[in-house]
Write a structure and sequence with these properties.
Rossmann fold, Transcription Regulator spoIIAA, 3 domains, 6-stranded mixed sheet, 14 helices, binds iron/sulfur cluster
Length: 487
């Protein structure tokens, strides 16, 4: 029997952390419930892994969802799920922390628990089992999965974990039970939600009717934890370098958290409020240190909307000098397309001008107003025009189908806007200067209502409705003059 990509499971990567176990050391298994290449691309795990391992009394290891081939072998041979660093069963750890980034990974959470030999339901777990703790954006709306978790950490992980670990150590030293620990965590550590300490009743439509703590001192309302001073928050100087190509195989420099815009469908825009920037000095330090400690050949700026970072110009200037010396590429996602961004992108994409991306999200101005996407057709066409004049000939457009209040007209608008941009290329670029034919790639994903957004109670389309909308989009593209240039 063989498994594909065994490097997913062996650990030992550059900058991964090995420790010698000492009495009282807390063992934390940090799980991204998806395959290694995706999990290793996640910044939040790198931040927490680094933060935990700076504590002398904690050893944090990583665990990912095994691919189907290894899953099958593990079940046949009764091999329990193990952490990458020590290769020891997750079941022996004090904590299993699972980051919940998207709802589609919920079945993987069950796979991880099942393969680890940990009872799926929190109520069936004993003193021998790790405390299963959920975090990440989906934990802001924990109720649908509450039965599977002992504890949820609501908010940004940098703030309350040290306190939680101290409470755990105190309870353990006194020989206390897991229930005692959970009660103290709920009472003493901000941002903790222990489902077993609440009675939740539901209305007929599935929404919550009441949510009442069952023990004294347990908060009736849990407030999300946020880091206000990002400059002094932990950030990895030595991120782990995967052995095999990860989905995001580069150094990631988080420049700010939060977004100043308020698109009504966007969960990240709501959850990560308020906007917090890192200083230029901090970013220069981390950029240099991380490139030196990893040997990576690319650095990417991470934020929800990089154009809104107030020192972007100075940062890009610094990176261009540093990266030229080190022969490192710079990647700048999430930029608004304006003259400054195009200038910067022109410099960093010096060899071949790859495609530019706009995210109008909706085809008509009416629907863009409904979703509060502050991007007008005028701005899109102006940006595209500047890009075409600057030598780009490929544009990617992102849209959503099934948004609230969408009509057929809005769907047709997707094709019409794509067509207008294609036509613009031939208007602004003279024949002799054209870099081949223009190519517009318009992609549509389906709207999913997300908790804590203004659209949280909007209905989601059925599969059939979505497929009809997709068919209408394609049909509308075929009716356009420049249909051959639109994919
Ligand atoms: S979609 Fe982008 S710009 Fe809009 S709120 Fe979300 S992160 Fe911000």
């Amino acid at each position: 029997m063989s498994v594909s990509s065994p490097a997913r499971y062996v650990g030992g990567e550059v900058n991964s952390v090995m420790k010698t176990l000492t009495p009282g050391m807390v063992r934390f298994a940090m799980c991204f419930p998806d395959v290694y290449e995706i999990g290793m691309s996640h910044l939040g795990i790198q931040i927490l892994y680094d933060m935990f391992n700076r504590y002398d009394d904690v050893w944090c290891e990583r665990v990912y969802s095994p691919w189907l081939d290894l899953d099958k072998i593990m079940r046949e041979k009764k091999i329990p799920l193990f952490a990458l660093e020590s290769q020891e069963p997750v079941k022996n750890f004090d904590f299993l922390g699972i980051t919940l980034q998207y709802e589609m990974c919920y079945t993987n959470v069950l796979q991880v628990l099942d393969l680890s030999g940990i009872p799926l339901l929190a109520k069936d777990r004993t003193e021998e089992d790790p405390i299963v703790i959920g975090g990440g954006p989906c934990s802001y709306n924990p109720e649908p999965i509450a039965e599977f978790f002992d504890l949820f950490y609501i908010g940004e992980g940098e703030t309350a974990y040290r306190k939680l670990l101290d409470v755990y150590k105190e309870v353990k030293e006194k020989g206390g039970s897991r229930q005692e620990f959970l009660l103290r965590a709920a009472r003493e550590v901000p941002g903790m939600y222990v489902p077993s300490l609440y009675e939740v009743s539901y209305k007929e439509d599935g929404t919550i009717a009441s949510f009442v703590p069952t023990k004294e001192g347990v908060p009736a309302k849990i407030t999300k934890e946020i880091v206000m001073d990002l400059d002094n928050a932990p950030y990895p100087e030595k991120p782990v370098v995967p052995f095999i190509r990860a989905t995001q195989d580069r150094v990631v420099l988080e420049i700010q958290r939060g977004c100043i815009r308020g698109c009504r469908f966007c969960q990240a825009g709501q959850l990560y409020r308020p906007v917090r920037e890192k200083s230029l000095e901090t970013l220069k330090h981390y950029a240099t240190t991380m490139l030196d400690s990893t040997g990576q050949e690319e650095i990417s700026l991470s934020s929800l909307s990089s154009s809104d970072y107030s020192h972007l110009e100075e940062l890009v200037d610094f990176l261009m000098t540093t990266c030229q010396e080190k022969k490192v590429n710079i990647s700048l996602p999430s930029l608004r397309i304006d003259a400054f961004s195009l200038d910067v992108m022109g410099k960093v994409q010096d060899v071949k001008k790859s495609s530019l991306t706009f995210a109008p999200e909706a085809g008509s101005q009416r629907l863009r107003n409904v979703i509060n996407k502050g991007l007008t057709e005028e701005v899109i066409l102006k940006g595209a025009g500047l890009a075409f004049e600057g030598g780009w000939s490929r544009v990617k457009l992102y849209f959503m189908l099934g948004l609230p209040f969408e009509t057929e007209e809005d769907i047709r608008g997707i094709a019409e806007l794509s067509n207008k941009i294609a036509a613009l290329y031939y208007e602004v670029v003279p024949k002799e200067k054209r870099n081949g034919p223009v190519q517009i790639v318009s992609s549509t994903s389906f709207f999913i209502p997300k908790p804590f957004t203004p659209f949280q109670w909007a209905p989601m389309c059925t599969k059939e409705q979505f497929l009809d909308k997709a068919a209408l989009t394609k049909q509308a593209v075929r009716e356009q003059l420049n249909q051959k240039r639109i994919k």
